Amino acid sequence: MTAPEAPGTAEKSGSETALIAAILAGDREKFHLLILPYEAQLFRTAFALVKNAEEAEDVVQDAVLKAYRKLASFRGDAKFSTWLIAITLNVARGRLRQQSRVVVDSLDEQREGNADFTPAALTDWREVPLAALERQEIRMLVQQAVAELPDTYREIITLRDVEEFSVNDTADLLGISAALVKVRLHRARLLLQKKLAPQLSRIAKDESKRSGKRSLFGRLSWL
Amino acid sequence: MALNCRHVWDCISEYIDGTLDPRVRADVERHLATCEICSAILDSTRNIIILMADDRVFELPLDFSRRLHAKLRDVLKHEHPEPV
Questions:
Q1: Interface touch A130/B46, C-beta < 8 Å
Q2: CB-closest option in B40, B48, B84 to A196
Q3: Which of A 27-86 lie inside 8 A of B, CB atoms?
Q4: What is the arithmetic mean of pLDDT over A97-101?
């Protein structure tokens, strides 16, 4: 994954600036290199909105072509990754509008405020089952839980926890306040915890029973 | 201030992101030190966030990148970026 805030960002943005200048000066083939680090990020973001792999792929193709055509209007004061994601979100929303499948922002503030967000109280699942991600069953559980989130929560969790954009960048991308990003993110995380923690903890227990040891779900200590 | 479990749940996301006010953070930590339920909720929420960020969870369709660059190649051959 591309972590937009990773160390070396300044270096990366410097080389991106050079690539963009070269492309605009006529070295068009360099555009392939420019978008290469962001392809997966664009796909996952498009998928969070349109919820269909084929359509998400179309969205990314349209967004990347649009970014190419509009490259001269990219200003260095924004990060290139954020600019690309903003274009992808716009293209995805445009498609949803065409199909009258608007992202439903039905969770008005009052309802969000009154919702019951009690987490699943478990005392026996503390391991990080990263090794278990090799199993399709586990990946499917996580994907399904994310897919079942309300649209607004799925958008937020994708930008913040999958793509690791900052709260402020997420707020800018979605056109909402940073405070609302935090509220929705919190609820999205607790909804996922409530849904996934019991399932994953059950699998972890079965696994350790079967193997007699914690082979797949080795306990890792938290720093 | 002594917090109850519900207060701590309300703070979990900001606690994980490290954006809580230091005084509230200290209260949360005091509660977590003695409440097994809340500390398990914190751990499992953090686990799920770590899982979500793993590239293996949301895989790309086969040949996604090849198709994207093929399409791009067609356009790059014929088009310049638009002038501002």
A1: no
A2: B48
A3: 28-29, 31-32, 35, 39-40, 43-44, 47, 53-54, 57, 60-61, 64-65, 68-73
A4: 82
Q: What are phi and psi of B55, to 5 degrees?
A: -60, -25
Cβ-defined contacts of B23-31 (< 8 Å, 24+): B27/B1, B27/B2, B27/B3, B28/B3, B30/B2, B30/B3, B31/B2, B31/B3, B31/B5, B31/B7
- Integer Cα distance of A21 and B43 in angstroms: 46
Which ipTM value was assigned to this complex?
0.90
| CB contact (8 A) between residue A68 and residue B76 | yes
Whole-model pTM: value is: 0.83
Tokens 């405020």 label which residue?
A113
What mean pLDDT is predicted for residues A129-144?
Answer: 79
CA A49 – CA A66 distance, rounded (Å):
18
pLDDT digits (tens, 9 = 90+) for A168-192: 999 999 999 999 999 999 999 999 9
CA distance to A1, A5, A31, per residue, from A37 (Å) = 8, 14, 11
Q: Domain limits of chain B? A: 5-78
8-state DSSP, A38: G
Q: Please give the domain boundaries of chain A with CATH numbers for all domains.
A: 9-98 (1.10.1740.10), 109-211 (1.10.10.10)
Per-residue tokens: B20: 């809580």
